[in-house]
Amino acid sequence: MRAALSLAALLLALVPAPAQAEEVTPAPTPREELQADLSTRDISIQSNFTGIEILIYGSVDFSQTKAPDQGTYDVIIVIRAPAQQIVARRKERVAGIWINSPGKVFPSVPGFYAALSTRPFRAIASDETLKSLGIGLANLDFGRVSKDDPNEETFRSAVIRLKEKQQLFQEHDDGVAFIGRSLFRANVALPVNVPIGRYTADVYLFRDGELISKNQSTLEVNKAGFEQMVYLLAFTHPLIYGVLAVLVAVLAGLAGWAAFRRE
Amino acid sequence: MLQVYLPITEISVNLVVMLGLGGAVGFLSGMFGVGGGFLLTPFLILSGIPASIAVATGANQIVATSVSGALAQWRRNNIDFRMGAMLIAGGVAGALIGVFLLKLLREAGQAGLIVSLTYVTLLGIVGALMLGESIRAIRRARAGKPASGRKPGQHSWIHGLPLKVRFPRSRLYISAIPPLVIGWVVGLLTAFLGVGGGFIMVPAMIYLLRMPTNIVIGTSMFQIIFVTAVVTVLHASFNHTLDVVLALLLAVGGVIGGQFGVRAGQKLRGEQLRALLAVMVLAVALRLLFDLVLKPSELFSIAPLVSGA
Questions:
Q1: B199-240 pLDDT, tens per residue?
Q2: What crossing angle do the helices spanning B213-238 and A238-261 adopt, rounded to 10°?
Q3: pLDDT computed for residue A21 by the predictor
Q4: pTM of the full predicted structure?
Q5: Higher pLDDT, B231 or A73
Q6: Which of A109, A223, B25, B72 is the S-S candidate for A45 at Cβ 3.0 to 4.6 Å?
């Protein structure tokens, strides 16, 4: 009983504390807010598509940086494409021939992933924060449940390595640059083999290891024009697509025959 | 420069390289009088196109080259349409099985391996046989002996089979079973390997069916048009592996290259041509074999999961 009373007294003493603090600081500085956008929100893949470079830019509103080179803030940008089901296979030697072993399925691997930052990720935020936000290739969750498999890590790192080789996974810890006190920018190159879909670009603002603001934009990557038509036809009306392909080939053959017949 | 995005393969290729590849294979096929699919598909695989796309797209490209080839043969009345129909009937049945076989292998991640292995075996055997035959022919020609032709009067067990059909154009009265079986095997190969199958069908028609040589090429081209067309539609429908843009690039190169190949071929002697072709076939087989036997620099591979549905 006495203990409860003293606890209540303690609570009473504590509750007004924030109010008192507000009264003490009469003009609080507004909290920093992040604004960000992409140089393009629609990417169309056409016959001349060989990849594209996009610019992510933004600013820190109410920046409290005193000097441009002070480095008060850290920015991390994560760009992701929709997740795909990926099967990873390892070749094994069977009777002198290298054969794919039964693969391991990773249910949700981002079709594209790029993480860019002002400094190495681990210098910006704690491992737990990075993990919960999925920042950095090491912190990606591919949706696999079995963790007791000894080969798990080998396959996981193989997926990352192969995706990095195709430039579908990227990590640049010096990819974001501040310009002056509040502006920042970053470039990311989307390779020719980027998957289609709605991408997200998450921008995180950190100060002293703490996430203080974030912003999300989206980016649509789609095939356009003739390429889109072919792609849609091939997957929605495959029979018509196949018949048309045969007709085109027959016409090409006829044209070739007609062109060279007279000689 | 001049990169072209392939909508199904989802990679960008060089226009000049792909036209050139189609042209080179077309040139060789014109020169040697073969379809060229058995060179084109391995070349595509070696240049980084996934095996299942290379097979479907190769079949589509062959439709174009065999149409122009067959038209030229038809003008010279070199097609036995009744025999062609038998070969097509067998071919379509074989194609159905081949397409589903490839679908199953693709889902198991073994399409590349099995397609390469089949190529190595087939090209190895055909190349070795052709090389041996052409070397003997060259020796005979040097020794001044006449080339040994076929002996038309000979009969084999094939002529004892039932269900006999008359083939007036070929002047044959034989069982329908051998043409159906030959067509079936060729259809299977077309669906599975993206080849026309002329390199199997032509010798089979000459040596097994004993058809007149001048009709063999036209009839095989006639069969190839229809079977590759069916294979194209089947792969597009069930495997979604047909890249029509790639096929068209290869077809344009192939049709043009083929015309120049025919002219170049007329300047070389038959045995020499066959020896040259045999060496090339063996080289392709060896190259594919090396890729299977040598330890790959990257043991892992990733692919989108192809669902069973």
A1: 788 888 888 888 887 788 888 889 999 999 999 999 999 888
A2: 150
A3: 47
A4: 0.78
A5: B231
A6: A223
Mutation target to probe the A interface, by most A beta carbons within 10 A, among B4, B11, B68 is B68
Chain A residues with CB inside 8 Å of B109's CB? 87, 89, 100, 102-103
Tell me which residues of chain A, numbers 125 to 164, contact chain B at a CB-CB cutoff of 8 Å: 155, 158-159, 161-163
- State the SS3 of chain B: CCEEEECCCCEEEEHHHHHHHHHHHHHHHHHHCCCCHHHHHHHHHHCCCCHHHHHHHHHHHHHHHHHHHHHHHHHCCCCCHHHHHHHHHHHHHHHHHHHHHHHHHHHCCCHHHHHHHHHHHHHHHHHHHHHHHHHHHHHHHHHCCCCCCCCCCCCCHHHHCCCEEEECCCCEEEECHHHHHHHHHHHHHHHHHCCCCHHHHHHHHHHHCCCCHHHHHHHHHHHHHHHHHHHHHHHHHHCCCCCHHHHHHHHHHHHHHHHHHHHHHCCCCHHHHHHHHHHHHHHHHHHHHHHHHCCCCCCEEEEECCCCC
A252/B64 touch (CB, cutoff 8 Å), yes or no: yes
Q: Which two tokens stand for residue A106?
A: 């990773």
- Give the least confident one: A1-5, B62-66, B164-168: A1-5
The whole-number average pLDDT for the span B161-179 is: 82
Spatial CA neighbour of B224 closest among B198, B262, B251: B198
**Quick one: pLDDT at residue A58?**
92
Percent of chain A at pLDDT > 70 equals 85
Q: How far apart are CA A85 and CA B303, in angstroms?
A: 9
What's the confidence (pLDDT) of residue A192?
86
For position A18, what pLDDT does the model report?
47
Element holding A184 (H helix, E strand): strand A183-190
Measured distance between the N- and C-terminal CA atoms of chain A, rounded to whole angstroms: 113
**What pLDDT does B184 receive?**
95
